[in-house]
Design a protein that fits this description.
Helix content: 40-55%
Strand content: 15-25%
Structural class: alpha/beta
Order of helices and strands: EHEHHEEHEHEHEEEEEHHHEEEH
Strand order of the largest sheet: 3-2-1-4-5-6
Bound molecules: adenosine-5-diphosphoribose
CATH class of the domain at 6-152: Alpha Beta
Distance between the termini: 45 Å
CATH topology of the domain at 6-152: Rossmann fold
CATH architecture of the domain at 6-152: 3-Layer(aba) Sandwich
Number of strands: 14
Largest sheet: 6 strands, parallel
Number of helices: 10
């Protein structure tokens, strides 16, 4: 019998729960949901309850995947992939960056446990502010950089394609596009490299309409926070599961991911071990980030990319001031 993958999801809230559901629906492996919620109330056990509810979808949806819930990190032992969604989400009026001090403490403690209990796992970080949290994960675990990845681009690209499809009145499946840079409002869309089955989108829409889609993708997360009072979870989870699938099935998918860069796209040229995680096209397979695809940016793209990198650097600077040992 083929061994099933083991996927642990740390943080069983909105994104974590939806991730677990989708991972099971696609039968990508057995899922362990870990959370600390209600740990102080002995009569309650949120992750166990959520796992049980999810497991009971199995007969209806027709999936065979074990889903278990736990407070105990010993249960993540042997995980092939660990997804980290632990942390607080945004409230209306907050930027992702406003979460940096609270979530870096949470991600640091989660990382210490992953290092101890799942030392061979590939880690996908989802907690925000993403580019800084994935840096914390890398520093604290000490894992090789190809095994630490941030989910941001998969979601941002999905939003970008969705808004273009709305505008063009075509299927989302037929839109190809990419975004680079940090997971903030200064992410870098590439309209000149976006197409509808190879037809440049610049031939199909006037510049201002494309710009409107680009702008909406940049603040798409904030648009949802305003409507719901908390941050999105369905599309963030879909983006995360896309990455897990590429890894577990060794698909070599090219997915915009927050991957560790030094020379790539001028992130930290020649600075060995002093790079940053920023959104770049990454080949994801069984080893994690198997390759970063680089290409020459035009002057406008380069200007936006430099600004985005400098923002990521500032944000990581905040983390380094909070935790000098992570410098
Ligand atoms: N260890 C494990 N779980 C934790 C910890 C911790 N130290 N601290 C918080 N959690 C759990 C919470 O108990 C909660 O169940 O993380 C879960 C977060 O779930 P939600 O509050 O529903 O937030 P969600 O919408 O899932 O977003 C999680 O991902 O995209 C980012 O900005 C988002 O940072 C946020 C994170």
């Amino acid at each position: 019998m083929m061994r099933r993958a083991k996927i642990s999801v740390i943080g069983a809230g909105n994104i974590g729960g939806e991730c677990a559901r989708s991972l099971a629906m696609k039968e990508l492996g057995d899922v362990v949901l870990l959370d600390i919620a209600n740990k102080d109330k002995p009569e309650l056990h949120m992750p166990k309850g959520k796992a049980l509810d999810l497991a009971c979808c199995g007969p209806v949806e027709g999936f065979d995947a074990r889903i278990t819930g736990t407070f105990d990190y010993a249960d993540i032992e042997g995980s092939d992939v660990v997804v980290v969604t632990a942390g607080v989400p945004r409230k209306p009026g907050q930027s992702r960056d406003d979460l940096v001090s609270i979530n870096s403490g949470i991600v640091k403690s989660v990382a210490e446990n992953i290092k101890k209990f799942a030392p061979n796992a590939i880690v996908i970080v989802v907690s925000n502010p993403l580019d800084a949290m994935v840096y914390v994960m890398w520093k604290v675990t000490g894992f090789p950089a190809h095994r630490v990845i941030g989910q941001a681009g998969a979601l941002d690209v999905a939003r970008y394609k969705t808004f273009l499809a709305f505008e063009l009145g075509v299927s989302v499946e037929d839109i190809q596009g990419l975004l680079l840079g940090g997971h903030g409002d200064d992410m870098v869309p590439l309209p000149n490299r976006t197409s509808v089955n190879g037809i440049p989108v610049t031939d199909l829409l006037p510049a201002e309409k494309i710009q409107a889609c680009v702008d909406r993708a940049k603040v798409g997360g904030g648009e949802i926070v305003k409507l719901m009072g908390t941050s999105a979870w369905y599309a963030p989870s879909a983006g995360t599961v896309e990455m897990v699938e590429a890894i577990v099935r060794d698909k070599k998918r090219v997915i915009a991911s927050a991957a560790y860069c030094e020379d790539q796209f001028g992130v930290a040229p020649g600075q060995k071990g002093k790079g940053y995680f920023v959104g770049v096209p990454a080949v994801l397979g069984a080893k994690g980030v198997e390759k970063i695809i680089t290409f020459k940016l035009d002057d406008t793209e380069k200007k936006f990319m430099d600004e985005s990198i400098s923002h990521v650097r500032d944000l990581v600077g905040v983390v380094k001031r909070l935790y000098p040992e992570l410098a």
